Amino acid sequence: MSDRTQDYRLPAGGLIDRTRRIRFRFNHEWMDGHPGDTLASALLANGIHLVGRSMKYHRPRGILAAGAEDPGALIQRRVTGEPARTDPNWRATQTALVDGLEAESVNVWPSVERDLGAVMGALSPVMGAGFYYKIMQGSRFMWQRVYEPLIRKAAGFGTCPDLPDPDRYEQRHVHCDVLVVGGGPAGLAAARAAARSGARVILADEDERFGGSLLARPRTVEGHAGPEWVASVKAMLKANPEVRLLPRTTVFGYYDGNYLMALERVTDHVSLAEAPAGAPRQRLWHIRAKRVVLATGAHERPLVFGDNDRPGIMLAGAAQEYLHRWAVLPGRDVVVFTTNDRAYEAALDLHTAGATIHAIVDARAEPGPALPAAARAAGIRVVTGYVVAGTTGKTHITGASINKLQADGRAQPHCLETIPCDLLLVSGGLSPVVHLFSQSGGKLRYDTDRLAFVPDRAVQAQASVGACAGTFDLAGCLAEGAAAGAEAARLAGFDPGRGAGEAPACDSEPALGSDSPLWQVRYAKGTEFDWGKPFVDLQNDTTAHDIQQAAREGFESVEHVKRYTLTGFGTDQGKTANINGLGVLAEALGRPMGEAGTTTFRPPYTPVTFAAMAGRDRGDHLDPARLTAIHDRHVAMGAEFEDVGQWKRPWYYPRAGESLHEAVARECQAVREGVGILDASTLGKIDIQGPDAAEFLNRVYTNAWKKLAVGRVRYGLMCREDGMVFDDGTTARIAEDRFLMTTTTGGAAAVMDHLEDYLQTEWPDLRVRLTSVTEQWSTVGIAGPKAGILMARLASGQDLSPESFPFMSWRPAIVAGLHARVFRISFTGELQYEVNVPWHQGGALWDAILRVGVDLGVTPYGTETMHVLRAEKGFIIVGQETDGCQTPLDLGMDWIVSKQKPDFIGKRSLSRSDTARPDRRQLVGLMPKDKRRVVPEGSQIVEPGASRGPKPVPMLGFVTSAYWSPALESGFALALVAGGRARLGVTVSVALPSGEVPAVICDPVMFDKEGARRDGLPAA
Amino acid sequence: MARYSIWSLARNALSHHQHWPRQWRSPEPKRHYDVIIVGGGGHGLATAYYLAKEHDITNVAVLEKGWLGGGNTGRNTTIVRSNYLWDESAALYELSLKLWEGLSKDLNYNVMLSQRGVLNLAHSLGDVRAGRRRAEANRLNGIDSVWLEPAGVKKIVSIINTSSTLRYPILGSTWQPRGGVARHDAVAWGYARAADARGVDIIQNCEVTGLCRDTAGRITGVETTRGPIAAGKVGIVAAGHTSVLAAMADIRLPIQSHPLQALVSEPIKRVLDCVVMSGAIHVYVSQSDKGELVIGAGIDGYNSYAQRGSFHVLEHQTAALVELFPIFARLRMMRTWGGIVDTCPDASPILSRTPVPGLYINGGWGTGGFKATPGSGFVFAHTIARDEPHPVNAPFSLDRFVTGALIDEHGAAAVAH
What we know:
The structure holds 2 protein chains of 2 kinds.
Chain A: E1 22-26, E2 29-33, H1 39-45, E3 52-53, E4 60-61, E5 74-79, E6 87-91, E7 101-105, H2 120-123, H3 131-134, H4 140-154, E8 169-181, H5 185-195, E9 201-204, E10 220-221, E11 224-225, H6 226-239, E12 243-246, E13 249-255, E14 259-265, E15 282-294, E16 298-300, E17 313-315, H7 316-326, E18 333-338, H8 342-352, E19 356-362, H9 371-377, E20 382-384, E21 386-393, E22 397-404, E23 417-420, E24 423-427, E25 430-432, H10 435-439, E26 443-447, E27 452-457, E28 462-464, H11 474-491, E29 535-537, E30 542-543, H12 544-552, H13 558-565, H14 578-589, E31 608-609, H15 610-614, H16 631-636, E32 640-644, E33 647-652, H17 660-673, E34 676-679, E35 684-689, H18 693-700, E36 713-719, E37 725-735, E38 738-743, H19 748-762, E39 769-772, E40 777-783, H20 787-794, E41 810-815, E42 818-823, E43 832-838, H21 842-852, E44 859-860, H22 863-872, H23 907-910, E45 921-928, E46 940-942, E47 957-965, E48 970-978, E49 987-992, E50 995-1002
Parallel strand pairs in A: 1-7, 8-9, 8-15, 9-12, 15-28, 17-24, 18-19, 18-24, 19-20, 34-44
Antiparallel strand pairs in A: 1-2, 3-4, 5-6, 5-7, 10-11, 13-14, 14-15, 16-25, 21-22, 22-23, 26-27, 29-30, 32-33, 34-40, 35-38, 35-39, 36-37, 37-38, 40-43, 41-42, 42-43, 45-48, 45-50, 46-47, 46-49, 47-48, 49-50
Chain B: H1 6-14, E1 32-38, H2 42-55, E2 60-63, E3 79-80, H3 87-107, E4 118-122, H4 125-140, E5 146-148, H5 150-156, E6 172-176, E7 180-181, H6 184-197, E8 201-203, E9 208-213, E10 219-224, E11 229-236, H7 242-247, E12 256-265, E13 275-278, E14 283-287, E15 293-299, H8 311-324, E16 332-343, E17 350-353, E18 359-363, H9 373-386, H10 400-403, H11 410-413
Parallel strand pairs in B: 1-2, 1-11, 2-8, 4-13, 11-18
Antiparallel strand pairs in B: 3-7, 4-6, 5-6, 9-10, 10-11, 12-15, 12-16, 13-14, 14-15, 17-18
Helix pairs in contact in B: 2-6, 2-9, 3-9
């Protein structure tokens, strides 16, 4: 148990609930905080600054900021008793304190205080920018086997959970008239003004509390203290039914069409016990807004000087926020280093709260009028024209060395004094948070007065207000916010009413002097390296020296420097580093700041949980599983399923103890000798209607369609423009102006797209309409010599015998009491009927067939048996015998390519020189000399003995399908072989890793070549 | 060129790295070059390097409209492999892989080739057929590719979900041990430095705005934002804008340009040691040496030249990722970006002379150009220098779209169900 007792918590004040204590663990110590605390504020209250270690040198890292911009205070978040609920790389500043929270420093061993990784610091002289590109290049072996594994072991911060995530995530889509991003003074004013008009308003803020800077600095708005004003505006908005308040919601991405993405942390801020039942952990919002008001605030910049990275060095504004919001004094002996007046206010506030401000070191010769005077009046030592040149301390700052600036703007070689301190506040000015604006496509402009990149021109329906637009004073923020909120509502079609855009009044703030740019402390010549490392990116350990080196080496583009030095590549994406980095680079290149622009602000603003992006598309919902109306029957019969596109198709129906091979052999035999049934509902079905329907089919299929009689069915082959086979299937003429097309199961959607594409873009003159009816019809195929008997029983009183119902025709019928369309087509070579009934009656049809066919031994068969049976007949499966590189001729299907038709899709390509080559790979059968062999599908075919020769081995083709045929009592295969049709009877080799299997090329039709079985066997 | 080594690093450390020379010059464009390469990405810089190294043509300029390596070279997911189906592709990508294997040494620049192996997962019986077929074709072409059953996949990546309850269960995978990843920026920089050392002028912020031809139609140079520059030969190597540049010479290419997005997670401790690709459920992932998971997937559906894509594409690939790797669910996306890929109808590149004498095109690499960088530069340099293709790139000519001799890698990647 720890004896830490929140020594740094002030006795009163702050927006925390002091009535309750929250116990949490940090590394080995348990300690207390309060509801309302972040982990960072609770650690600071307990006197802890050292949270983590940096990436490269394992330098101690403390808490620099109070929000999303903090670069170094990363932890592994754990929850007591919940090993699966652990999260790497959480920022202490954004981690709500909850019961059972156990936070651990990351990337340290054995402990954050004594981290052995810190020996890397000794190597730091050689580990300058891009050092790894310059070494280890000589030996591939040494790099890959020795050095890289060491680097990989050292890399990374937190650890991935080792259990699947038990939490649930969800997504919501929402439209609104006005989206306000950021709930600080500008955002609240905007939301209030917009909401008055009756517009649908969403106000989102990444923080748990609305208020922004009003929680961090003592201000009075409309007569109320900041937090009270915030509460009253929030209450007013909450009472408005058209307003949606989204606290703890980070708008992280701004896409085209005012489409923004936001992540709401729904239960991360409470313990599991407190989480509402059924609530998701996080919710991803897809927001489509008519107007967007960005009020995202600004980040304070740290200053770049020697050893500016020690724990205990903190942004001035952050310290002020810890003080006011959490009643935490981050230190008692304070030095302030600033380039602007705002830090004086922080110093005064800390002074009032009981800290000793030993000095305010101001790089400017002339600070502003008001606050510096107030500081002096409070007895605080103000040193102007000085900088902090370096610091002392190990895991916490112990002193700040101050040097006078020379006339050339460089620090004198020797320091005036080293002031002992436990807290060094730094402030280099403010950087507007322009991330979302920039993502929206807006261009930035460098404002030399405000020393900041500010939004220049919006390109979407959007306005930036307040600090994110470079307006840093409260009155300005409130005025801009209210005006923009009212204007946004008006532009969205609402009347905000008179006065809605008027600025909320606030008490005046102290007048500020102007900021002075200081991108880095520059040292007298020859002393640049005497003061420790001047860090720019505290997470990735990029120093000003690295950036200067990059510039010397010719990396002049800001993107090059970013990549070469890794500036801004960390989990904070450089929120505190990038602008200083640009300043250092500009000085190194002798260019004006801002000229080279910024690096790209890429989404997301802060990291987004993968599971939230996946939402509910998990498990079976990853992709919809399409099930036929007969699916539950297949399940009940113990079918194994195959994924075909999104469909679940019965693959085979094993009986107890049967293997795939045995089940398929049995099913094949049933079809060849008795009768089998197949659920063929998954085949794509397209209803084609219109006066030009026949003409349309004539153009999309390779064969002729115009003369097909009503009631007749024809097989068709479709090519792409390149002449390669695209899909196939049978199409029936239902009426003069109506056809029913079937497609392959997996190809249905692509065929529909293909047909619509041609109809809408190439032949808009054709009067044809297409409707997908795949899921309107259940289809059961009945195949086998006894199919006729079965059909007669099912359709009693109707003559569906092969004699009166010819092959390749269809007719309406009553089957098993159901209105049906019966098709006489065959994919097995046997007498076959395909019975279509309305989708929901599929199960009834299936049951009836099984019932009336019991004595016939009617046997359900799956796709595997279907594949065997059709392969015996040499029928292709598009996608198996084809891979997009086969013409109809390659498949031996020239009989289906019309020579008379003036055109069809792909016709021109068939006469191209390569397409017409005689030695193209052609579809053939393949009989292994050893009949017991079934060669693996996909095997390559070579000349005998060739695979033992040198690589590359010339390949003649490959095996597209291979099965055991019970009918042939042999293994057999279909294959595509170069010039194959001219090589019938020739022996080739199927090259396997284990050796070659000799096989003879043969005709692809291996069973019932004459087609005698198509109309059923003669009555025995 | 001052050579990099552990000794030069140590020496420079003593002087606080104050004396490193520029890695490449920043010259003013000359008035005339023997060859101008339009596009300072990996392929363009490699072309310039091999022109100088293999063909002794050093009066070469690489013109880049932005910063070198800023296009797809700096935006891809850095996967390197050669396990392509067709002989023509296999030869090209295997030539590349062999060059990759000596590249760090050749360039004296550590491009961090990391041959940690590539898995291409199969999720359906059709995938299995295609995977076996590819592995077998690779084997006979001398490429180290094998077929693995699910247990073999699990042995290589223990954290992958091989359960049969996966919506599309893993039914097997191809495995190429020599595949892996490389540091993309370093490839551009390494080639730039080495090409510069051989005399090539690398000129950034110089956009080509027109192609100049004489009355006979032969190329004579380029118009740029920094003025006209004459050249005997011009090579277009501008992925994402290939058709835009070709149109300047009135050449219409069968190319469609689409955004392709990628993303990285926050850096975490080592958890994944090979590259895992799933064409069927659309995601691929590896872990960088910095600890980030580098994740990509398919192209956005609509044509675009904007280097940004749609969020739902990222959602789909992330959903696929967390199904394949359930322990990744709580990890977080740190950064996303997009590039523009030029896709050809047969998913194979164009490395070709053109109907315009003196003009050459290298483009249409689709989503997979990075892995080909060295080989592409090597054969394209040959094509320009000799005005005839190297045997390896002869099949990748423009006329294949006329003759029909396509090299269709779609079928290999995703067979229709």
